[in-house]
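Final report, section 2: Outcomes. Of the targets proposed, 6-phosphofructokinase type A is the one most frequently requested by collaborating groups, and we therefore present its record in full.
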Amino acid sequence: MTHEEHHAAKTLGIGKAIAVLTSGGDAQGMNAAVRAVVRVGIFTGARVFFVHEGYQGLVDGGDHIREASWESVSMMLQLGGTVIGSARCKDFRDREGRLRAAHNLVKRGITNLCVIGGDGSLTGADTFRSEWSDLLSDLQKAGKITAEEATKSSYLNIVGLVGSIDNDFCGTDMTIGTDSALHRIIEIVDAITTTAQSHQRTFVLEVMGRHCGYLALVTSLSCGADWVFIPECPPDDDWEEHLCRRLSETRTRGSRLNIIIVAEGAIDKNGKPITSEDIKNLVVKRLGYDTRVTVLGHVQRGGTPSAFDRILGSRMGVEAVMALLEGTPDTPACVVSLSGNQAVRLPLMECVQVTKDVTKAMNDRRFDEAMKLRGRSFMNNWEVYKLLAHVRPPVTKAPGSTHTVAVMNVGAPAAGMNAAVRSTVRIGLIQGNRVLVVHDGFEGLAKGQIEEAGWSYVGGWTGQGGSKLGTKRTLPKKSFEQISANITKFNIQGLVIIGGFEAYTGGLELMEGRKLFDELCIPFVVIPATVSNNVPGSDFSVGADTALNTICTTCDRIKQSAAGTKRRVFIIETMGGYCGYLATMAGLAAGADAAYIFEEPFTIRDLQGGSPTPFDRNFATKMGAKAMNWMSGKIKESYRNGRIFANTPDSGCVLGMRKRALVFQPVTELKDQTDFEHRIPKEQWWLKLRPILKILAKYEIDLDTSEHAHLEHISRKRSGETSI
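The predicted structure is given below as tokens.
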């Protein structure tokens, strides 16, 4: 990036004014977005205004529209809800109200509007924009604004950020507030789980989501629920029999707890609501189980935002300012959102249209279409849920179709490892394979600490922290002989390795060892799981999100205690070896003034424990399922003359998330991308976020705008990728 471009970012906003408002239902993480819009706006030289109480403030004007300063947004990052207030606004729906709003903006020279809210709020903004020139000519005719003012404000730029805990907006993978809502739900599910273990109970848990089942679906994946009811996919007509059969089956397998998750908008095939009370009555009447209903309600909107939502809000806020300042009269109003791990800009009305199409499809009972319109990520969640919950594990297997796959953990423990083991084991069993678990990593593989795992072996593992199988950092090279002997003894035909940097280097050693030992010529796949997020080939590792939230909680507590004392500096050391991911992202999420990392030379230990976050549970579950599906295919491919023989580079892979897709990459191909001395990938996507951290903490810094998010179209973006 040239010096001129650097300078351009700092002067981009000179002479411009931006107003930011939050509208509709509140969502955790909105404050992070407001803070980022204000600080990045000021950084670029623009003036930034708060609009208090949403559109109502825009209509009422006066004291509701106030200029923001750098300091006015400090200490708000960790607060839930929205500090500048949000209100449902009738006045803005009438043209008269919009006329008053236009007048208030023109008088202050504001021609850039950043709206943070749900689809209703964003549609309102688009209407406002399309009427803008008519509104101005009316104001001029009425003598309320001068011709000069009208020329100065000739067009209005609008950028939307979606804040909605339901994640019901099409075109964006995650809306601001969704992850935090999942945190609230999972906290409650975990609490319920412990009490239900004491008494044999069935719990029916109702979560928000009138038209969208996202929260219910991800919750059921994250807690291994027995059944989920969502509006997009009503159950079959005989669901009552099916549900009762499932519940009694899990009881006979030894489970003391049944969890049923219901979205508040759940319906049957005829569009009749299925309520949590209906389900409770059914279970009590047919099975006589002790059944309790918990309706979560507004708890889901409350509490502090999760690390993910703070980072999402901050990144989207930065992107929104850039989109506004680069806008021209011809650019359509856009929404900034996250697709996989990339910031994208999408035409606002395209997204709104698809969101409306979903509702229409559901009203017309075209449920398959509604599922498709929700996008690939939603469909993937549904497929994995169906696999893990609906299929009975096969009892008898056809001779010759059964393969033996072993699962192990390597490196330091990371939250979410157990969720990955659980889904790997269960998907393996569903496919009719024999699944072995290896204790204590490669060392256990050498010593023969190996046992067969059945369906209930991994029951209840999703929410447990650390590594139930035990994990060690030992590498395989020095024990090749013993490992080869055990591969033969236990007839292991494929290996799923869940772990950190050692899992990757161990994989490389196995590739090398294939030249010496035929036994090592079996397919293997590495699922990255480490709090440091330093495995080559993946933007995210299982466990890193949990670690980030642990750091955030610690920082929040320290900030609270420090608020009462003057001039204190707190230095918080995080883990991560030479990889600065945790320090950088935590700095962004906790609002730190500086984060020192190895990658920029300068120079809370128990991050591995604790219950995994919803993101890590869900990510680990999907990674395990995807790895096992790949493994089955690879074993079949490598089957020759009655035995497995795999010695091609693509039979030893890392399964990683790259930008928007989950991809399998041969470990040997990733060698060139790895700095082995410091145990980190050579290129790390999050280093691009460091300038944002520094701007938000008021450094004299140049913003790297070299990676542009270009405007895309929804339909085109979805093809040919597997999103997570």
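The CA atoms of residues 69 and 130 lie 30 Å apart.
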